[in-house]
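Researcher: We plan to redesign the surface later, but first we want a full-length starting point. Tokens attached.
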């Protein structure tokens, strides 16, 4: 039997009021997603697809307008005391270490901040040293009195990770954790996240636009488009045999891709004006090429909505054309 999910979203919706009389924006529009103990899930998609809003909702930073989040089998409550306890168990790692570190705080104070917020009663110095060491900053005491501007980009990101680890969370949400780093440092940070999973049993949701990163770090991938997950499954299955035309297009532009790149036309639609039918149909290369017409599903692509994918580990795809094959 598979282990019960550590974090689970069911029927999750997040809607923001429209500006100047515009319809509400459905940033997250029906998402089921599970993250198991010790599992790394990559949430992948273009900018504006809703993945950061989904991550913030899973963290309790944005309350859902529909559906709910549960952690360790318990529904997430939004009372301040409940959220404070939850955020000790689920920590955020942001993409820009320079922006998330106070330039006037030493490394020691940056890492100790979470302990102080949560009223830690143990040996603070020992806890900070252990977190820095786990994040790869050794010997940790050498970094205590340094300031962010005295560190390299990779070292700053390790300090941010140490600040999350110091509370001994069960899950971290990493939003584009290596996007601002040099290519030479990215591999080190990804290797660190993998080692933390192996050593601590830590679960992670990694939010990224980079399918290459997903391939290197994730056990499972969820591809998001316009507020919905459109394909999900074990990373090897999805990235070696992508089914959804959107996933195929994202993979086609990677340097190691075999065929010609698929150039998607236009921008993702406005989330306040989600199209009927498959929400990808206006940009879909399969529909544009006539393949969907030949398969007899073109009209369904334009008019028939697809169901929300289940949140579990099985490979699933939301596409009329794939279903007709």
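Model: Full-length starting sequence:
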């Amino acid at each position: 039997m598979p282990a019960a999910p550590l974090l689970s979203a069911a029927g999750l919706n997040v809607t923001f009021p429209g500006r100047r009389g515009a319809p509400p924006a459905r940033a997250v529009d029906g998402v089921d997603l599970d993250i198991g103990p010790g599992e790394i899930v990559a949430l992948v998609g273009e900018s504006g697809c809703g993945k950061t809003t989904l991550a913030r909702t899973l963290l309790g930073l944005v309350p859902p307008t529909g559906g709910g989040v549960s952690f360790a089998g318990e529904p997430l409550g939004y009372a301040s005391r409940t959220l404070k306890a939850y955020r000790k168990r689920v920590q955020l790692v942001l993409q820009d270490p320079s922006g998330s570190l106070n330039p006037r705080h030493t490394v020691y104070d940056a890492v100790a901040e979470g302990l102080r917020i949560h009223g830690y009663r143990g040996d603070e110095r020992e806890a900070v040293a252990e977190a820095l060491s786990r994040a790869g900053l050794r010997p940790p005491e050498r970094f205590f009195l340094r300031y962010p501007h005295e560190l390299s980009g990779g070292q700053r990101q390790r300090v941010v990770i140490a600040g999350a680890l110091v509370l001994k969370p069960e899950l971290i949400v990493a939003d584009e954790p290596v996007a601002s780093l040099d290519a030479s440092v990215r591999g080190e940070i990804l290797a660190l996240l993998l080692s933390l999973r192996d050593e601590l049993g830590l679960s992670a949701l990694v939010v990224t636009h980079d399918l290459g990163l997903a391939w290197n770090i994730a056990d499972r991938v969820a591809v998001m488009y316009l507020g919905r997950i459109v394909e999900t499954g074990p990373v090897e299955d999805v990235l070696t045999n992508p089914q959804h035309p959107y996933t195929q297009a994202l993979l086609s532009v990677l340097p190691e891709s075999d065929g010609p790149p698929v150039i998607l036309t236009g921008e993702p639609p406005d989330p306040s004006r989600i199209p009927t039918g498959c929400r990808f149909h206006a940009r879909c290369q399969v529909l544009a090429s006539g393949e969907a017409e030949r398969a007899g599903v073109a009209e369904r692509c334009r008019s028939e909505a697809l169901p929300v994918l289940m949140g579990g580990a099985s490979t699933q795809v939301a596409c009329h054309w794939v279903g007709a094959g």
